[in-house]
Known about the structure:
Layout: H1 2-17, H2 21-30, H3 37-47, E1 56-62, E2 89-95, H4 106-121, E3 126-129, E4 132-135, E5 157-158, E6 169-174, E7 184-196, E8 201-210, H5 211-216, E9 224-226, E10 236-241, E11 249-258, E12 267-272, H6 280-294, H7 300-311, H8 315-329, H9 335-343, H10 345-352, H11 360-365, E13 371-383, H12 398-405, E14 406-418
Antiparallel strand pairs: 1-2, 3-4, 5-6, 6-10, 7-8, 7-11, 9-10, 11-12, 13-14
Helix pairs in contact: 6-7, 6-8, 9-10
Amino acid sequence: MRRKETKESYKSHKEKDGNSPSEESEEREKEPRTLTYPAYIASLLDTGAKRMAAGVRMDCNSQGQCPRSCHLCHMSPRTSQGRQQSEPVLLQITKAAPIYELVSNNETYQSLQEAMMSMLWCSGKGDVIDDWCRCDSSAFGTDGLPTCAPLPHPLLKLSYTYEPSSSLVIMEWNHTEPPIGVRIVDYLISQEKVTETMDHSKVETETLLSFVDDILSGARSPCVMLGDIPDLLSSSISMIIRCLEPDTTYMFRLWAVDNTGRRSSPSEVTIKTPCPTVDDVKAQEISDKIYNLFNGYTSGKEQQTAYNTLMDLGAPTLHRVLYHYNQRYESFGEFTWRCEDELGPRKAGLILSQLGVLNPWCKGLLQEPKIGLRRMSLKFLSCRYTDTKAFGLNWSHMGQDVHKACDEQTLTVMYNDYGEPKEL
């Protein structure tokens, strides 16, 4: 009797507590796994590279849950049981393809291809013939030159490698031309000195040179020399411009010229050259020489030697001679007073008048206790007169031809460093 009660109590206890753990896991395995549609699309993109056609792109995004008031959304029957309700998604499928591949007619295919080539290389105003543009009758400027192929705009800039000196600058630009439509045959370079005044600036045009006819040929460019020439590895062109005046503002302009005679819009660089360069060691030696000439009895020959020496110095070095003389020998008389005493007012006035040539900024630099002189070697190409037509204007191979006709030489450029050197 007690045994029967035990079985019945176990049965009632089992019904009260629910299913066993093993039965619950089996029930969960029977339920379908939930996979959202965006996740399904993402899985195709991650693992289905072979399924996707070339150029096809699929993008699937969830747009939020369906509101109960929307009769167009399908509501899950188990929403009331706590399951997530259906979500609208947006699937976008695109395939990249050239426009002319979407047409099957051969004539339409060719017309679209020609139209796209015209838009790419000839501004849509002409036909591509081999590697050039045949412009339409309406694509000509007021000067009668064709305008359908856009002309490249070269960018003139100062060299990043060499700083300007008081008499020399290095200008650079990259030679670029499209494979179709335009052929650059020359560059024009202009050099202008700008005279600054109180109310306006006056521009004095000094030089206009053709890169091919004047510089590359070596015909007439004593103050302009070649630096770098385009080759298979580089498209850079550099020019060394000498014979500049210290402490002067210059404007340089560059135009590209194509085979029809068109000029590009100019690229401009304006620069002011540094103050004149001085050799401070030489200035100290001259100050000692002048002291020795002035010391004691001064004959007419010694006076003339001192006068000639000081008149030939130029304003920058004369400032440094005055500085060193007064630093060492002012106790025997200040420099300007000694000049008047030894040479007379007229000759002394001619010498000292040179001191007013420099501007206040350069005068201030020349009063520095120490002025160093730094020398730098600069390579350039010295070209003999050469028929540039022999080069064939093949810019990528021009470097080889130019090096055959030009000699590589070295130029020494001097710079001043003012004040004591700073430790880095």
